[in-house]
Amino acid sequence: MDAARNREPSTTDVLSRAVAALDWDDLTERLNEDGYAVAGSVLAPHHCERIRGYYTDPDVPFRKTVDMGRYNYGLGEYRYFGDPLPGDVAALRGAFYSALAPVANAWCRRLREEPR
User: Fold this and answer.
1) Under 8 Å CB-to-CB from 11, ≥6 apart: which residues?
2) What is the C-alpha separation between 35 and 30, in angstroms, rounded?
């Protein structure tokens, strides 16, 4: 048997497939009609736990932490990831970007702006 067929899919593969499996026709329609869309579940609970754990992990770089109360945005804080992004966060960003870029470019064209 071929070893490549027996290997476990990488986290990047799993997350990319989960994003690709969303109903992008419906999501695009919702975005166009409502300005937002609810995608539904993409992450398995163990992925959620791992990503949630990044917040307090001293080995995960953050480039900025914002105290929400300081700016009257509410309570708590928000953190921006630094480079390099954790692999699963990078995979999600790439997968969603690929799916959402055509939607954003279509909006640019409607607004007579240059697609990026």
Assistant:
1) 47, 87, 88, 91
2) 7
pTM for the full model?
0.78
Q: How many CB atoms lie within 10 A of CB 19?
A: 20
Whole-number Å distance between alpha carbons of 36 and 32: 8
Residue 58, pLDDT above cutoff 60: yes
As a whole number of angstroms, the distance between CA 100 and CA 49 comes to 25
Question: Which candidate, 92, 109, 95, places its Cα nearest to that of 32?
Answer: 109
Q: Quick one: average pLDDT of 96-104?
A: 92
> Looking at the chain, how many residues does it have?
116
Q: Which amino acid, one-letter code, is at 86?
A: P
- The answer to whether 86 touches 60, Cβ cutoff 8 Å, is yes
The span from the CA of 43 to the CA of 41, in Å, is 6
How many C-beta neighbours within 10 Å does residue 94 have? Answer: 15
Question: What distances in angstroms separate CA 3 from CA 9, 12, 16, 44, 94, one per listed residue?
Answer: 12, 19, 22, 26, 27
**pLDDT at position 10:** 86
